[in-house]
Amino acid sequence: MKILLRILPLILLGSYSFSLKAQTNLSPLPQLGHNTVKEVIAAMTLEEKAMLLVGAESKKSQRKMSDGTAIGQTEIKVSGAAGNTAAIPRLGIPSMVFADGPAGIRIAATRKGDTINTYYATGFPVGSLLASTWNTGLVAAVGKAMGNEVKEYGVDILLAPGINIHRNPLNGRNFEYYSEDPLVAGKMAAAMINGIQSNGVGTSVKHFIANNQETSRGSINVIVSERALREIYLKNFRIAIAESNPWTVMSSYNKVNGVYTSERRDLLTTVLRDEWKYKGFVMTDWFGGHDWIAQMQAGNDLLMPGRANQVQALIQAVKNNSLSEKVLDINVEHMLNIILKSPTFKNYKYSNKPDLKAHAQIARAAATEGMVLLKNNAHTLPFAKSVKTVAAFGDSFYNPIAGGYGSGDVNKAYVISGDKGLLDAGYQIDSKLSNVYAEYFRNNKELMLPGITGVRPPAILPEMVVAYNDIDESAANSDLALITIGRNAGEGEDRKLDGNYNLTLNEIQQIKKIAMRFHTDHKKVVVVLNIGGVIDVSQWKDDVDAILLAWQPGQEAGYAIADILSGKVNPSGKLPDTFPADYADVPSAKNFPGEPAGKPDQVIYQEGIYIGYRYYDSFNVKPLYEFGYGLSYTDFSVSDLKLSAKTLTNSLIITVTVKNTGKVVGKEVIQLYISAPTGSIDKPVQELRAFDKTRLLQPGESQHFTFRITAADLASYHTDKSQWISDAGRYLVRMGVSSRDIRQSATFNVPKDWLIETDHDVLQPQVAIKEYKPPVTK
Ligand code: BGC
């Protein structure tokens, strides 16, 4: 027996080395990177293919949302990352790691058993703010810094950017996304993706497509015309894909015209790959969709986060001939092509030590540049020299909301408070008042969970009602009132109209009381909006002297706000969304979040292409603050608009000059809108076709801009023909600094209908939609 025990290992070792040798002698196993992708696929078993196409995450470590969906939370390799793919070591295929999200990488800040290191990430400003910079170079710099953290923390793909169109202000995830306009959203996305991917890591542009609400997000059927899809909801993705080639695309949770997006071959293959020539892979959102076989056939290559029964289902489907193994081969090929580029495959030795200090500076610069000055009566801002002590009202002044919650949150090391920001800039804060707030926070600790990463909304502290005595005293003790209004929102639910979009009664009364008291002493009142999406301003704007839309500015919040209030930085943000005069004016107000009320299962996009300014302009509805709007501490002139020709041939060169005519340095956004002739289909009054931003211009300094417009930039989608056509006729170029502050215009002609492209007849709604039509056609 003893002898047998001794020689058994030798026998086993012998047979193992024999089998290895035998294998080597016959044909060595293909290895990813050494052999072609096709050779690797040929060597894969059916089980291995199925495994690779299903995320490797165990169900246990997902964090369930109340609606049954989840956000990712894995403990494998990078603690707190969202998920990972399966490894097949036999063929040299490593496991890739994915992490959220749009405001920076979301991973756990601490790790079990590691008492020495922390793994904080930079909390960058949210998408709405980044879009408000209208500065693609700056957004690319943010992306570059984010991508560096992705790489240095051992992650392969950042699940960002989120670029869904802001269809309705109540969408709980608008903060993550960019704009109501597909050009702005697409250009920002491309800049962000290029920045992130310049590090050699990947992105997942999401959520493809029409994930424009959180109510019933896992099941809602979006009923929308093909024209609205092509011109609005697909357009942003198309721009992003053409200009930045994201490694992956994440399909959305919702259905479009009756079918889950992740199960639509016409969307994921016909449009994305055949029409747009996309070469990366598509993953589901976490537990998205429902028919796994249909997802595979649609070209949704990877099911995330993955469950064992999905692997079995794919294997069974091939075995019983309901799914062709060839489909799996194609999907595996898409994935292997990306795995080859990943840092994990390249064995990148990540440091776990990104330069957080340097990135904080980028976060601050971006935050400052994306803030929008909405109102500034009699030069209230920047603070006059006489302003030394500020009475700061508002919970979120002392505890700023850096970003929204859910998968778009970031585990940042700190958030700079408003008081820290102002003190650092040399101001005093009325300490009597700040002590009242401090006490309120102490007494309500359990309701204050700033910066949490989780699926549940952070407990919200109700806005403190300041006693009149305290207001009175602070007016006597300070030179100016600063009122911060905060809003948080996130994944899993939409915002409410009352008490969220519309300010609460307490908030409005408080603004009025403070304003009245401070104005009695001829002291100014400034409101800072620390919000992720559009809110009502109409009801209280006349009570105050200045309004700064600070958005959710990331971890450097207090510093960035102080940069603008003090005048250290001149505001240059412009609205990527319309602020309506009333919520009822929002074109989707009647169709959000769908029907039946309570738990909607379908939503009809009756407004069609007329969302945002396209609607307000074409239906003669006056917004409060229009798309593209934002004030500055200086003035700019726009002059010398010139067109290279009166008739469009190949392309048209449009030039213009922007000059700083005021007294301080500043930047301006130059916006090029075009009005197209109606032709055979209705058109919006104008559409943004290009934009750019000046460098920092000294007083008196000018910058010259050149835009190149092609016929494709002018086209509309003619659903009856499945064609993009630039209609013959007269086009008006409108050059401005907002959608309603047009400074120069000129016309050109397109001599005959210009066919740009014929697409496939796909994605059509199955029911008739009564789309709104503009009252007057031009
Ligand atoms: C979100 C995605 C996110 C994923 C992974 C989902 O709930 O919709 O945006 O990337 O979770 O955390």
Please tell me about this protein's structure.
The protein is α/β, with parallel strands linked by helices. It contains 21 helices and 28 strands. It has a 6-stranded mixed beta sheet with strand order 3-4-5-6-8-11. A 6-stranded mixed beta sheet has the order 12-17-16-15-13-14, sandwiched between helices. Strands 10-9-7-18 form a 4-stranded mixed beta sheet, with no helix packed on it. The protein is globular and about 85 Å long. The N and C termini lie far apart (98 Å). Residues 1-25 have low confidence and may be disordered. The chain binds beta-D-glucopyranose (BGC). Residues 69-72, 82, 100-101, 159, 206, 285-286, 407, 491 line the site of beta-D-glucopyranose. Beta-D-glucopyranose binds next to strand 2.
Question: Could you give the topology of this structure?
Answer:
Blueprint: H1 2-26, H2 37-43, H3 46-52, E1 63-64, E2 70-71, E3 83-84, E4 97-99, H4 127-133, H5 136-152, E5 157-158, H6 182-197, E6 202-208, E7 221-223, H7 226-233, H8 235-244, E8 248-251, E9 255-256, E10 259-260, H9 265-275, E11 281-283, H10 292-298, H11 308-319, H12 325-339, H13 356-369, E12 372-376, E13 389-393, H14 395-398, H15 418-424, E14 428-429, H16 431-443, H17 468-477, E15 480-486, H18 497-501, H19 505-520, E16 524-530, E17 546-549, H20 557-566, E18 602-604, H21 613-618, E19 636-643, E20 651-660, E21 669-675, E22 687-693, E23 702-710, E24 716-718, E25 723-726, E26 729-738, E27 741-750, E28 754-758
Parallel strand pairs: 4-5, 5-6, 6-8, 7-9, 7-18, 8-11, 13-14, 13-15, 15-16, 16-17
Antiparallel strand pairs: 1-2, 3-4, 9-10, 12-17, 19-20, 20-23, 21-22, 21-26, 24-25, 25-28, 26-27
The chain binds beta-D-glucopyranose (BGC).
Beta-D-glucopyranose binds at residues 69-72, 82, 100-101, 159, 206, 285-286, 407, 491.
